[in-house]
Amino acid sequence: MRIFKERSEWFDIPEDKDKGRIKLKYLNQGEQHRLVASCVTRDFVVNEKTNISESKSSPDEIRLIETAVDVRIIDWENIIDDVTGQKLECNKKNKIRLNDLKGFSDILKDMIDKLNKMVESEREQEEKNLPDSLGGSPE
């Protein structure tokens, strides 16, 4: 079992006049599951036929999107406030503002897909180059 290092990557925002760039964090499967699980709401409802309390889970989609954007985007360059002309601080509020811009969520999904493919490819290569045991390289 191998635990791989955290991975992040810079991506240029396509066709951005300010040459904005975003640094995204790769989330492994466990991190993705915990992210989704943290955004699920549970309601308890009494079944009228059995008089037993039953749990009903449903994702809080807005919280999931906002949390995912906050966790995934770890830094940026040249993201400018159109009103003030000043560079925006990379914080949760501004990350959500950016994601709310028309078309940006699709750009972000594309960047995440590229990062996932890059990491998967890198990890496959790393695994191929690893020795078969902890004792050292095969001879």
List low-pLDDT spans.
none
Distance between the termini: 22 Å
Radius of gyration (CA) equals 21 Å
Strand order of the largest sheet: 1-2-5
Shape: flat
Q: What's the total number of strands?
A: 5
Q: Give the overall average pLDDT.
A: 88
Compact overview of the structure:
With 139 residues, the chain is of the alpha+beta class.
Can you offer a commentary on this structure?
The chain is an alpha+beta fold and 139 residues long. The protein has a domain at 8-28 and 62-128. The chain has helices spanning 29-37, 61-72, 92-100, 104-129; strands at 8-12, 21-25, 40-47, 52-59, 73-77. Strands 1-2-5 form a 3-stranded antiparallel sheet. Strands 3-4 form a two-stranded antiparallel sheet. The chain starts with 7 loop residues before the first strand and ends in a 10-residue tail after the last helix.
Key phrases:
about 140 residues, alpha+beta, two-stranded antiparallel sheet
Task: Give the helices and strands, then pairings.
Elements: E1 8-12, E2 21-25, H1 29-37, E3 40-47, E4 52-59, H2 61-72, E5 73-77, H3 92-100, H4 104-129
Antiparallel strand pairs: 1-2, 2-5, 3-4
Helix pairs in contact: 2-3
